[in-house]
Amino acid sequence: MMTVTKNSFPLFGEDREHLIWRSGKKHELLKCPIFRVNEIERTSQDGKSGNFLELKCPNWVVVIPVFRDEEGVLRFVMEAQYRHGCEYVTNEFPAGIAEEGEEAEEAALRELQEETGIRPGRIKLLGDLNPNPAFMSNRMYVFLAEELEIVSGQKLDENEEIDVFSIPVEKALSLMGQHSWDSGAIISASALYLLEARKREEELLK
Protein backbone atom coordinates (compact mmCIF):
# COMPACT_ATOMS: atom_id res chain seq x y z
CA MET A 1 0.00 0.00 0.00
CA MET A 2 1.12 3.53 -0.77
CA THR A 3 -0.01 6.78 0.83
CA VAL A 4 -1.50 9.23 -1.63
CA THR A 5 0.61 12.36 -2.04
CA LYS A 6 0.49 15.39 -4.30
CA ASN A 7 2.73 13.60 -6.79
CA SER A 8 0.62 10.42 -6.95
CA PHE A 9 -1.41 11.82 -9.87
CA PRO A 10 -0.93 14.57 -12.44
CA LEU A 11 -2.00 17.97 -11.16
CA PHE A 12 -5.18 19.53 -12.48
CA GLY A 13 -4.76 20.95 -15.96
CA GLU A 14 -6.81 22.25 -18.85
CA ASP A 15 -5.66 19.80 -21.57
CA ARG A 16 -8.73 17.60 -22.03
CA GLU A 17 -8.91 17.47 -25.83
CA HIS A 18 -7.88 13.79 -25.94
CA LEU A 19 -11.02 12.88 -23.93
CA ILE A 20 -13.53 14.29 -26.43
CA TRP A 21 -15.63 11.74 -28.40
CA ARG A 22 -16.88 12.49 -31.92
CA SER A 23 -20.64 12.31 -32.42
CA GLY A 24 -22.21 10.37 -35.27
CA LYS A 25 -25.79 9.42 -36.06
CA LYS A 26 -28.54 10.24 -33.58
CA HIS A 27 -32.03 8.79 -33.52
CA GLU A 28 -34.97 9.12 -31.19
CA LEU A 29 -35.95 6.04 -29.18
CA LEU A 30 -38.78 7.46 -27.07
CA LYS A 31 -40.82 10.66 -26.88
CA CYS A 32 -42.59 11.54 -23.63
CA PRO A 33 -44.39 14.70 -22.51
CA ILE A 34 -41.38 16.11 -20.59
CA PHE A 35 -38.36 14.39 -22.18
CA ARG A 36 -37.07 12.45 -25.17
CA VAL A 37 -34.61 9.57 -25.21
CA ASN A 38 -32.06 9.65 -28.02
CA GLU A 39 -29.37 7.15 -29.01
CA ILE A 40 -26.12 8.65 -30.33
CA GLU A 41 -23.17 6.95 -32.01
CA ARG A 42 -19.85 8.21 -30.66
CA THR A 43 -16.19 7.39 -31.31
CA SER A 44 -13.24 8.14 -29.05
CA GLN A 45 -9.94 9.48 -30.36
CA ASP A 46 -8.22 6.15 -29.74
CA GLY A 47 -10.77 4.20 -31.76
CA LYS A 48 -13.36 3.04 -29.22
CA SER A 49 -16.97 3.34 -30.40
CA GLY A 50 -20.39 2.77 -28.94
CA ASN A 51 -24.01 3.86 -28.75
CA PHE A 52 -24.90 6.19 -25.88
CA LEU A 53 -28.22 7.40 -24.48
CA GLU A 54 -29.14 11.06 -24.16
CA LEU A 55 -32.09 12.29 -22.10
CA LYS A 56 -33.25 15.41 -23.90
CA CYS A 57 -35.18 17.63 -21.46
CA PRO A 58 -36.22 21.27 -21.41
CA ASN A 59 -34.06 23.56 -19.31
CA TRP A 60 -34.96 23.81 -15.62
CA VAL A 61 -35.11 26.85 -13.35
CA VAL A 62 -34.78 27.00 -9.57
CA VAL A 63 -35.54 30.19 -7.62
CA ILE A 64 -34.23 30.87 -4.11
CA PRO A 65 -36.53 33.53 -2.55
CA VAL A 66 -35.01 35.12 0.56
CA PHE A 67 -36.23 37.87 2.92
CA ARG A 68 -35.76 39.20 6.45
CA ASP A 69 -38.73 38.91 8.77
CA GLU A 70 -39.89 41.48 11.34
CA GLU A 71 -37.31 40.22 13.86
CA GLY A 72 -34.48 40.50 11.34
CA VAL A 73 -34.23 36.74 10.77
CA LEU A 74 -33.18 35.77 7.26
CA ARG A 75 -35.68 33.30 5.79
CA PHE A 76 -36.22 31.25 2.63
CA VAL A 77 -39.63 30.87 1.01
CA MET A 78 -39.91 27.16 0.17
CA GLU A 79 -42.44 24.57 -0.94
CA ALA A 80 -43.60 21.13 0.13
CA GLN A 81 -45.07 18.76 -2.43
CA TYR A 82 -45.44 15.06 -3.14
CA ARG A 83 -42.93 13.79 -5.69
CA HIS A 84 -43.95 10.80 -7.79
CA GLY A 85 -40.40 9.63 -8.44
CA CYS A 86 -39.39 9.17 -4.80
CA GLU A 87 -43.00 8.70 -3.56
CA TYR A 88 -42.80 11.07 -0.60
CA VAL A 89 -43.18 14.76 0.21
CA THR A 90 -40.07 16.86 -0.39
CA ASN A 91 -39.12 20.38 0.67
CA GLU A 92 -37.79 22.45 -2.21
CA PHE A 93 -37.28 25.91 -3.62
CA PRO A 94 -39.77 27.03 -6.27
CA ALA A 95 -38.75 25.43 -9.56
CA GLY A 96 -40.01 24.33 -12.93
CA ILE A 97 -39.41 23.90 -16.63
CA ALA A 98 -38.66 26.67 -19.11
CA GLU A 99 -41.25 26.64 -21.85
CA GLU A 100 -40.21 26.55 -25.51
CA GLY A 101 -38.78 29.92 -26.52
CA GLU A 102 -38.81 31.21 -22.93
CA GLU A 103 -35.65 32.73 -21.47
CA ALA A 104 -34.47 31.29 -18.16
CA GLU A 105 -35.17 34.47 -16.16
CA GLU A 106 -38.67 34.75 -17.64
CA ALA A 107 -39.34 31.15 -16.64
CA ALA A 108 -37.99 31.76 -13.14
CA LEU A 109 -40.24 34.77 -12.59
CA ARG A 110 -43.27 32.94 -13.98
CA GLU A 111 -42.74 29.79 -11.91
CA LEU A 112 -42.13 31.81 -8.74
CA GLN A 113 -45.38 33.74 -9.11
CA GLU A 114 -47.45 30.74 -10.21
CA GLU A 115 -46.31 28.60 -7.28
CA THR A 116 -46.03 31.20 -4.49
CA GLY A 117 -47.74 34.41 -5.66
CA ILE A 118 -44.43 36.25 -5.18
CA ARG A 119 -42.84 38.81 -7.47
CA PRO A 120 -39.26 39.87 -6.59
CA GLY A 121 -37.94 43.40 -6.87
CA ARG A 122 -34.53 41.95 -7.64
CA ILE A 123 -33.47 38.68 -9.26
CA LYS A 124 -29.95 37.44 -9.98
CA LEU A 125 -28.61 34.42 -11.84
CA LEU A 126 -26.32 32.51 -9.49
CA GLY A 127 -25.25 29.96 -12.07
CA ASP A 128 -26.34 27.27 -14.50
CA LEU A 129 -25.56 23.60 -14.02
CA ASN A 130 -25.85 20.32 -15.86
CA PRO A 131 -28.24 18.19 -13.75
CA ASN A 132 -26.50 14.93 -14.73
CA PRO A 133 -23.77 15.13 -17.37
CA ALA A 134 -23.67 11.34 -17.78
CA PHE A 135 -26.81 11.31 -19.93
CA MET A 136 -28.76 14.59 -19.62
CA SER A 137 -28.24 17.45 -22.07
CA ASN A 138 -30.25 20.25 -20.44
CA ARG A 139 -29.21 23.04 -18.08
CA MET A 140 -30.54 24.05 -14.66
CA TYR A 141 -30.53 27.80 -14.02
CA VAL A 142 -30.46 28.92 -10.37
CA PHE A 143 -31.70 32.39 -9.42
CA LEU A 144 -31.66 34.39 -6.20
CA ALA A 145 -34.85 36.43 -5.62
CA GLU A 146 -34.91 39.34 -3.16
CA GLU A 147 -37.20 42.27 -2.23
CA LEU A 148 -40.20 39.96 -2.28
CA GLU A 149 -43.83 41.04 -2.64
CA ILE A 150 -46.96 38.90 -2.65
CA VAL A 151 -48.91 40.02 -5.72
CA SER A 152 -51.31 37.13 -6.33
CA GLY A 153 -52.48 33.74 -5.19
CA GLN A 154 -51.14 30.47 -6.50
CA LYS A 155 -51.85 29.51 -10.10
CA LEU A 156 -50.96 25.82 -10.17
CA ASP A 157 -51.14 23.21 -12.89
CA GLU A 158 -54.06 20.79 -12.73
CA ASN A 159 -52.20 18.06 -10.84
CA GLU A 160 -49.98 20.29 -8.67
CA GLU A 161 -50.54 20.53 -4.92
CA ILE A 162 -47.99 22.80 -3.22
CA ASP A 163 -47.81 24.14 0.32
CA VAL A 164 -45.70 27.29 0.63
CA PHE A 165 -43.81 27.99 3.86
CA SER A 166 -40.95 30.09 5.19
CA ILE A 167 -38.01 28.82 7.21
CA PRO A 168 -34.86 30.44 8.65
CA VAL A 169 -32.01 30.15 6.18
CA GLU A 170 -29.70 28.68 8.81
CA LYS A 171 -32.24 25.96 9.68
CA ALA A 172 -32.94 25.04 6.05
CA LEU A 173 -29.26 24.74 5.18
CA SER A 174 -28.68 22.50 8.20
CA LEU A 175 -31.38 20.10 6.96
CA MET A 176 -30.05 19.71 3.41
CA GLY A 177 -29.30 16.09 2.58
CA GLN A 178 -31.71 14.64 5.11
CA HIS A 179 -34.93 12.81 4.23
CA SER A 180 -37.44 15.10 2.49
CA TRP A 181 -34.59 17.61 2.04
CA ASP A 182 -32.66 15.36 -0.35
CA SER A 183 -33.42 16.79 -3.80
CA GLY A 184 -30.14 16.97 -5.69
CA ALA A 185 -31.35 20.04 -7.58
CA ILE A 186 -32.11 21.91 -4.36
CA ILE A 187 -28.85 20.92 -2.68
CA SER A 188 -26.81 22.07 -5.66
CA ALA A 189 -28.79 25.33 -5.71
CA SER A 190 -27.94 25.74 -2.01
CA ALA A 191 -24.24 25.37 -2.87
CA LEU A 192 -24.51 28.28 -5.32
CA TYR A 193 -26.34 30.27 -2.62
CA LEU A 194 -23.45 29.66 -0.20
CA LEU A 195 -20.95 30.84 -2.82
CA GLU A 196 -22.99 34.03 -3.27
CA ALA A 197 -23.12 34.46 0.52
CA ARG A 198 -19.33 34.25 0.67
CA LYS A 199 -19.03 36.97 -2.00
CA ARG A 200 -21.35 39.18 0.02
CA GLU A 201 -19.43 38.64 3.26
CA GLU A 202 -22.01 36.35 4.85
CA GLU A 203 -24.83 38.90 4.38
CA LEU A 204 -27.04 36.07 3.13
CA LEU A 205 -26.41 33.83 6.13
CA LYS A 206 -27.12 36.02 9.19
Task: Offer a few descriptive terms.
single chain; 206 residues; alpha+beta; Nucleoside Triphosphate Pyrophosphohydrolase; 2 domains; seven-stranded mixed β-sheet; three-stranded antiparallel β-sheet
In the predicted model, the low-confidence regions spanning at least 5 consecutive residues are none
Class from secondary-structure proportions: alpha+beta
- The whole-angstrom Rg is 20 Å
The major beta sheet can be summarized as: 7 strands, mixed
Portion of residues within helices: 10-25%
Secondary-structure element order, N to C? EEEEEEEHEEEHH
- Under CATH, the topology of the largest domain can be stated as Nucleoside Triphosphate Pyrophosphohydrolase
Strand content: 35-45%
Termini separation comes to 46 Å
Architecture per CATH nomenclature, i.e. the level-2 architecture of the largest domain: Alpha-Beta Complex
Question: How many individual domains?
Answer: 2
Give the beta-strand count.
10
CATH homologous superfamily heading of the largest domain: Nucleoside Triphosphate Pyrophosphohydrolase
Oligomeric state of this protein: single chain
Describe this structure in words.
- It is a single chain.
- The protein has two domains: 19-56, no CATH class; 60-199, Alpha-Beta Complex (Nucleoside Triphosphate Pyrophosphohydrolase).
- It contains three helices and ten strands.
- It has helices spanning 104-116, 169-175, 184-199, and strands at residues 22-31, 36-43, 49-56, 60-68, 74-83, 88-92, 95-97, 118-129, 140-150, 163-168.
- Strands 4, 5, 6, 7, 8, 9 and 10 form a seven-stranded mixed beta sheet that branches.
- A hairpin with a 5-residue loop joins β2 (36-43) and β3.
